[in-house]
Amino acid sequence: MFVTPAFAQAAGGGGADLLSSFFPIILLIIIFWFFIFRPQQKRAKEHKAMLEAVRRGDTIVTNGGLVGKVVRVKDDSMDLDVEIAEGVKVKIVRSMITDVRSKPEPVNDNVEKK
Question: How far apart (Å, rounded) are the C-alpha atoms in residues 22 and 45?
Answer without folding.
Answer: 33
